[in-house]
Amino acid sequence: MAHAIIAKAAQTRRALPLPTGWEAARARLEGLPGSGLNIAHEAVDRHVAAGYGAQAALIWLGRDGDRRVLSYADLAAEAARFAHVLRVHGIKPGARLFLLLGRVPELYAATLGALKAGMVVSPLFAAFGPEPVRARMAIGEADVLVTTEGQYRRKIADWRADMPWLKLVLITGCSAPEECLALGPVMSAAPATFETHPTRPEDMALLHFTSGTTGLPKGVVHVHQAVVAHAETGRLALDLKPGDIYWCTADPGWVTGMSYGIISPLCNRVTMVVDEAEFDLDRWYTILERERVQVWYTAPTAIRMMMRAGAEAAKGRDFSALRFLASVGEPLNAECVIWGQQTFGLPFHDNWWQSETGGIMIANTADMDIKPGAMGKPLPGITAGIVRHDGDDVIEQPDGTIGELALRPGWPSMMRAYLGQPDRYARCFAAGWYLTGDLALRDSDGYFWFVGRADDLIKSSGHLIGPFEVESTLMEHPAVAEAAVIGVPEETAGEVVKAFVTLKSGYAPNEALERELRGHARKRLGPAVAPREIVFRDSLPRTRSGKIMRRLLRARELGLPEGDLSTLEGPAR
């Protein structure tokens, strides 16, 4: 806060009234006859009907240099063909379709086609191993899987017989194992029109999986009414305007890649850039420059990797088309915001949301001043507060007080269930609040500041220490690329702060640097909050979506159970 402000389940559910404040957002969508609502219709079909079929919907960049452009009419036709394939093969509305694909055109056609046919879409990250795939498909009782032949043989074939409810496996391309169906030929033979199934606003549409600290992943249920929030928050929080060139770097296997990598941009009639390849600095800068990207939504991890490479890597590039930069996935350090301003002439705008919220809840919007390090303010239609628990009571806290971030329930993209876990779902709500599990504070200007997950909070000598504040301070040092902070037991203080740090190129770990970093932190934070110990690492454990796994660092430090590791990026130690 010390930084200066930078200016400017497959079933039909009981119909719920649209919450107050969201009526105008709903009116910007078309809907289906008889008060129906369908995500795919809002994303593509209504634009084609309105005469925008020739506009580019998707610019696909293959990892080997291919470039393919699909118009809104093309995407609508491919979705219709896919929906027809499902219907011909006996897959009924409400069935659950899982996607195990990279960022390829078939993924977008399958997503929209399944939603158009009234089915439930559950995306999986293509880099998952066999066990995470199997666990999620078992929990979700998958009816259909769309994948590649290589993925099927490596990750599915050995246990497919254990899932008798899996009715159909569609393999991209023109050939498939005998027990599967090749998607290419049947898509080519299918008609390019399909009448959208008359889904209702509360019909289940999306099933996202999120990892808990222990146990199996949770299946988060979202309904077609979520599209109201997807469309509106893209307009408000990401400044999406019809015709924009927009690039969301998130994989559709994660909730961000679905909500803001497919649904929101298409509902706002933008042209999406989709890159099949993984992060490569030169490739990313080339895409921004060559494709004339106007709105860019990426992750703090990627921003820090760009920072690590230095400003020289961006010199000589033409980024003049960029209008708005935003970040998602984990808290955005103030240094990243400022670096964006220095490198691109634009700050990165942080925002906050969860798989459970389905869409952005708190954001730094285009018309706001930015306080680097702050999440921003609640979007219109969202009421947020800082609360504490006192027995069964939930008490709202005054500004400047750390507590649990809570939201008033009822926004359109709010999760409707944890699949098969009603008690766990019920525990998320109390006294008229949805309890997020994140600690934050609200300042006197109404900006919210992330402190950490409730189970990440460090209690030392009576002080409550949020790891994000310590990590951000360490990252202010020119040697530090990334930092993660945990609390470790100590007899006198209860807990003390321990930091794990990766260094930028050109810096080597040594005792002198460790002392320098501790001194830097003590000067900025005070001795009670600064790390007592700093450990240098080549890498930090993180999820495949980029979030640093503090709870895994803590578990390994203390010899505790490591919990669900299915989303772990790699064997970082």
From TrEMBL:
<protein>
    <recommendedName>
        <fullName>acetate--CoA ligase</fullName>
        <ecNumber>6.2.1.1</ecNumber>
    </recommendedName>
</protein>
<keyword id="KW-0007">Acetylation</keyword>
<feature type="domain" description="AMP-dependent synthetase/ligase">
    <location>
        <begin position="47"/>
        <end position="419"/>
    </location>
</feature>
<dbReference type="GO" id="GO:0003987">
    <property type="term" value="F:acetate-CoA ligase activity"/>
</dbReference>
<dbReference type="InterPro" id="IPR045851">
    <property type="entry name" value="AMP-bd_C_sf"/>
</dbReference>
<dbReference type="Pfam" id="PF00501">
    <property type="entry name" value="AMP-binding"/>
</dbReference>
<feature type="domain" description="AMP-binding enzyme C-terminal">
    <location>
        <begin position="469"/>
        <end position="547"/>
    </location>
</feature>
<keyword id="KW-0067">ATP-binding</keyword>
<keyword id="KW-0547">Nucleotide-binding</keyword>
<dbReference type="InterPro" id="IPR025110">
    <property type="entry name" value="AMP-bd_C"/>
</dbReference>
<dbReference type="InterPro" id="IPR020845">
    <property type="entry name" value="AMP-binding_CS"/>
</dbReference>
<dbReference type="Pfam" id="PF13193">
    <property type="entry name" value="AMP-binding_C"/>
</dbReference>
<dbReference type="InterPro" id="IPR000873">
    <property type="entry name" value="AMP-dep_synth/lig_dom"/>
</dbReference>
<dbReference type="InterPro" id="IPR042099">
    <property type="entry name" value="ANL_N_sf"/>
</dbReference>
<keyword id="KW-0436">Ligase</keyword>
